[in-house]
Design brief:
It is a single chain. The chain is of the alpha/beta class and about 180 residues long. It is built from four helices and ten strands. An eight-stranded mixed sheet has the order 5-4-3-6-1-7-10-9. It has a two-stranded antiparallel sheet with strand order 2-8. The radius of gyration is 16 Å and the shape is globular.
């Protein structure tokens, strides 16, 4: 089974985007000159998994931000892409992950958002959570996970504190 990493930035109050899906509040981080381990992480993954709203948000950035990686977009709505490296699917996460395992993909980045992250979590598919906690309180927005899921106990696998005030934490599920 491919390793699936939920690698995400979140506000101190647990939001990954504003209510309208905006991530402009992350822009100031790019001016720090620090990549917070992103390049190393990105180079380590074979493909990306995301929900349709995350995909549509990425399209607003101009150039596609993940050109050398295959990406799977989960949706129940009709979405089309002219890019040969983007695949739209309405499959359940476990079924697609099984197919990706057959393709010999070993490590996948679960980009977001909250609903797809909760779907993967509910099916027990997330091997590691890497959350960069940004020192900002948004007050509302799109949470790390959609509500309604079951309790899951995690254990700390590591952490890094940066001069900018960002703290990146790594959690793995506790095996029962």
């Amino acid at each position: 089974m491919p390793e699936i990493i939920y690698y995400v930035a979140a506000s101190l109050d647990g939001y990954i985007a504003t209510a309208d899906g905006g991530v402009e509040w992350l822009d100031e981080l790019e001016s720090t000159g620090e990549d917070y381990g992103y390049t190393e992480f990105y180079e380590s993954v074979d493909g990306l998994l995301m929900g349709s709203r995350t995909y549509e948000q990425c399209l607003t950035f101009g150039d596609w931000p993940y050109p050398e990686k295959q990406s799977w977009v989960f949706t129940q709505r009709p979405i089309e892409s002219s890019r040969p490296d983007i695949f739209v699917t309405n499959q359940k996460p476990k079924k697609l992950v099984n197919e990706l395992e057959a393709r010999k993909l070993e490590k996948l980045w679960l980009v977001g958002g909250a609903e797809i992250a909760e779907s993967f979590r509910t099916e027990g598919l997330i091997n590691e959570h890497i959350v960069s906690i940004i020192p900002v309180i948004l007050g509302s927005g799109i949470p790390l996970f959609a509500s309604g899921g079951q309790k899951e106990t995690l254990k700390l696998a590591g952490h890094t504190a940066y001069k900018s005030g960002i703290v990146q934490v790594r959690y793995v599920p506790v095996q029962s």
